[in-house]
Amino acid sequence: MNETKCIICGSKNIEKFPAKFSEFISRRVFDGENKNISIIRCLECGFSFYSYRFNQSENKKLYLNYRDEEYQMLREQFEPDYTKEKNYLLKSDEIEFGSREANMLRILNTHLSSINEIKTVLDFGGDKGQLIYKAFPAAKKYVYEISNPDVFEEITLINDLDKIKNMKFDLVICAQVLEHVSNPIDIIKLIKNYLMPDGYFYIEVPYYTPFNKSSERIDTKEYLMHEHINFYTIKSLEMLMKSCGEILYSGVEDIKTTLGNTKVISALIAHCDRDYSKISILK
User: Fold this and answer.
1) What angle do CA 147, 151, 154 make, to 5 degrees?
2) What are the backbone angles phi and psi of residue 152, rounded to the nearest 5°?
3) Domain at 14-278, CATH homologous superfamily
4) Among candidates 49, 73, 26, which has minimal Cα distance to 237?
């Protein structure tokens, strides 16, 4: 990967720090091999990212049967606090998903003339559909997911995008995904293809940086690459999304979880092909 510029804004005003794979990533993805890599911070847009990018085969090793028993046992071997209970909460915490759903619906209700105009929803990388299965009761709901989950009732699982290549959706959600992907710009371009001309795009990413999280580095000089390989600011997320249309909202939100409160960046984008005269924009 090119380590001379930011992969979001293209700026060469960056700084680099030494890093390597966490022991869990080394074992699960690379059969114990490790490499000297870098973590890069853009001084223009604030985006931070690890220089190593997982390829398709490596992503499959990491995320297939994600957070199943084998995943949990291997991770706990290297991270003793990653217990069965914690693993369960990360995929089934009703407090967290309720808080995130409420945050999403608040933003949508503020900026849409009526949430009932949402008739079809695609949750891209949405696991079992935890974020959408209670919301949008009148809509047809789909989840695209490569981890082979058992989705909730009334949700259609898509594990091959060819199955929906001719479909368009009123709302596409991409929540807690873009921090994992190797090519965020390509993913955004891909997802944009599934939006109706008057559709909406809802984004959610974690709001934190490894530079102030001691658990993600061995010492102050060496950082550990885990599943999150991208770290966003509001500015960098807005720059990533600018090709999709009008940014109706972006901001940092507090989310409640059983394990403690956390923060996310949420953004709502109106597709660039829509009629903006019909939208109430309340920032």
Assistant:
1) 145
2) -70, 160
3) Vaccinia Virus protein VP39 (3.40.50.150)
4) 49
From CA 104, how far away is CA 116, in angstroms rounded? 15
Angstrom distances, CA of residue 212 to CA of 30, 204, 220: 27, 21, 10
The encoded tokens of residue 44 equal 């223009």
The Cβ of residue 267 has, within 10 Å, a number of other Cβ atoms equal to 23
CA–CA distance, 67 with 63 (Å, rounded to integer): 8
- DSSP conformational letter for 273: T
Reduced to 3 states (helix: H, G, I; strand: E, B; else coil), residue 154 is coil
pLDDT digits (tens, 9 = 90+) for 28-54: 999 999 999 999 999 999 999 999 999
Residue length of the chain: 283
Is the Cα dihedral 52, 57, 61, 63 positive or negative?
A: positive
Q: In what order do the strands lie in the sheet with 217-219?
A: 217-219, 222-225, 14-21, 36-42, 48-50, 230-231
pLDDT of residue 221: 63
Supply the angle between the helices 56-63 and 23-30 in degrees, to the nearest 10: 110
